[in-house]
Every structure is written in C-alpha cells, then in structure tokens.
C-alpha cells in the first residue's frame, strides 16, 4: 500500500532506533520524508539513502527555535508542503533525584518537551494548509508507570501527554489530529549491547508476551495513526509495549 503517497513527513531524531524505523515506514507508505538529526549527519544521511530521492536530511537542534524554523522552511522549499510531524527526538538517562543537577533536568525537558513545542508551532501553518495534518508525539512507558532515578525523563514524557491532549483540542478545528505513541521496553542501540547499562525499570517491568519490542512495531503504529484509517483518532495515548503496562 502507498496510502501516504503525495504527503510529506518530518521525523525528528530520525538517525537511529525508533526514529529511523518511523522514517523508513512512512517512506514505505509512500510519503516523502525529512530526516532530522542533531549531531550525526552520517546517520541521517544513511537513513535518507535507504529511503531514496524522496528524502531530505535536515540537521537541526529541536531546542533551538531558529534552527527548527529553518528546518521547516527547507521542507517547504523542497516539497512545498508538510502533512505529518513526528516528535521523536529525546534523551534518556538515570540519576538519583538528590544527585540530579538542574542542567541535566533542563536538558532532558528541553529536548523532549520544548522540542515538541518548537516543532509543532513551527510546522503549524503547513499542517493547517495540509487538509490532513497530523502530529504524533513519541512518549514512553515510564510516563505512566513512573520509574526510579528518572524524574527528569518521566516528567518530560508525562508533559508530552499533556501537550498531546491540549493540542488535540486546539488544533481540531483545523482538521489536525494529535496523538501520542508510548513505546514499552525496546531492543534498541542504547541497550547493553551498545555498551550502555540497561535502565533499572527493565528489571521490574516485564512484557506479558515475553519479549521486548522492535522499533518497526512502533513505526507501524505511527503509520496507522497518520494514515487515512487513523483520521478519527485524536488526543489519545497508544501503548505499544507487549502488555508491560498491564503486567507491572
């Protein structure tokens, strides 16, 4: 199927893991895709190369509004429209609350939450003009369960839920849907296999179906939400976690 043919998607944090999978899935559905990354142009260009000529690399820090505005302008110059915005850019980490410095607190909130604000506002005129505009914010399981040593991450991702619901109200009159996809525990490059310690909540939360998720499974949910079948869904949190939220 090419249900997104003729539409243009912007995916932030699209150089690896879930963002990469979303960019590739939307391209498979026929969309032209703007592949955003902040630091690694090589990763972004590799994703764009997988997509082909209908991809555009846009290097931008989502916490910097002029950079975001420039990214949206580049999108409009290249494709003439923007229909889909996926706010995926995020950082995660663990630190005991008493050791959590304000700089780290603000960095996480700035990327996850301020970044979604910047991108959504910068893209708004184009999304209004689309006639089928849609925003998907990528959340996280711990926004709903809580987690030790993650006050900054839990707060940021919880804020995305609030932003999703608020924008669903604000933007409905323009035909723009706004939803939140909340992944559970995923097999991604930030796991132990990449040299990073596994998050603590991975030892206390277990998927009912007995395995971790794949990035393409998150991407599939996003594809459905932004496609024609998802046009009556807005203001919702879609949990994609193999039953982890139920299983505790």
Strand order of the largest sheet: 3-2-1-4-5-6-7
**Overall 3D shape:** globular
Total domain count? 1
Q: What letter string, H or E per element, gives the SSE order?
A: EHEHEHEHEHHEHEH
User: From the coordinates shown, what is the CATH architecture?
Assistant: 3-Layer(aba) Sandwich
Structural class: alpha/beta
Counting DSSP H or I runs of 4 or more residues, the number of helices is: 8
Q: What do you see in this structure?
A:
It contains 8 helices and 7 strands; from the N terminus they run βαβαβαβαβααβαβα. The chain has 248 residues and is of the alpha/beta class. Helix 1 packs parallel to helix 2 (41-51) and helix 3 (65-79) packs parallel to helix 4 (102-130).
Highlighted features:
globular, Rossmann fold, seven-stranded parallel sheet, alpha/beta, 248 residues, 7 strands
How would you briefly describe this protein structure?
The protein is of the alpha/beta class. It has helices at residues 17-28, 41-51, 65-79, 102-130, 142-145, 151-171, 215-226, 244-247, and strands at residues 8-11, 32-37, 55-59, 84-87, 134-138, 177-183, 237-240. It is 44% helix and 14% strand.
SSE inventory with pairings:
Elements: E1 8-11, H1 17-28, E2 32-37, H2 41-51, E3 55-59, H3 65-79, E4 84-87, H4 102-130, E5 134-138, H5 142-145, H6 151-171, E6 177-183, H7 215-226, E7 237-240, H8 244-247
Parallel strand pairs: 1-2, 1-4, 2-3, 4-5, 5-6, 6-7
